[in-house]
Amino acid sequence: MEHIPVLSLGDILLVSIQVDLEDQLALRLQEDLSNRIVATGAHGVIIDISALDIVDSFIGRMLSTIASISRVLDAETVVVGMRPAVAITLVELGLSLNGVRTALNVEHGLRLLRDARPALFALDGEAPEQPEPDTTPATVRD
Amino acid sequence: MEHIPVLSLGDILLVSIQVDLEDQLALRLQEDLSNRIVATGAHGVIIDISALDIVDSFIGRMLSTIASISRVLDAETVVVGMRPAVAITLVELGLSLNGVRTALNVEHGLRLLRDARPALFALDGEAPEQPEPDTTPATVRD
């Protein structure tokens, strides 16, 4: 397979990684994704890795790179669908997916991106009320 | 890769086919998809084939089978992202993707499914005008 499709969902791009990413494919994905962000003005990227049994340092680095490129292009990246075993291996390997946000599945990822930029989703033009930033306990995760 | 991930978007399931589907993988996909339809009560299935260069009779038949299974489970199937060359080949081969609806991309597919069942998307609780509201008892159960 010569490329990984990038799907559009409103102003969010969705990528489902199902194949082993060797160098060329990973580079192609980075290129496709950044082109699509610019072309569509997308503000969010969701990368589903639920099909991956293994996330090694190469894939981990690629995810971080994609997140960095997207951020420069004003889009947030969320990695979703990580298997428990993958999470364990990542931590054991000392890979922390720097700068990459994660969510349980695509729906949680969508919600995360929506919450991050609620103003973009206010259809009537008036910015919605922002809850005070400290009440949502991100510290619940241990 | 031992399986193709099925992603949830609200009450719609999304499958992106990126790898060559041999028998086992296709059967597994049918099984996963029908299990997920029942588990989530999804009413729509979107299958993205934008990564496929070739849709032969095997894949065509599989898409038709998935659509038939989904329909029995009360879910509509839309195939999206077909390349022009694939469409030409399909017609030349005499494959018509019986019972499969198509759309240009994921967004069009989502819209198609929404238009097909507007009642499910009425957020304010009042059902939009339906021809015969009382003759569809199957939609009451969820």
Automatic annotation (TrEMBL), chains A, B:
Organism domain of life: Bacteria
Q: Name one Pfam family in it.
A: STAS
Q: Which InterPro entries match?
A: Bact_StressResp_Reg, STAS_dom, STAS_dom_sf
Q: Where is this region: Disordered?
A: 123-142
Domain called STAS: residue spans: 2-113
* Descriptive protein name: STAS domain-containing protein
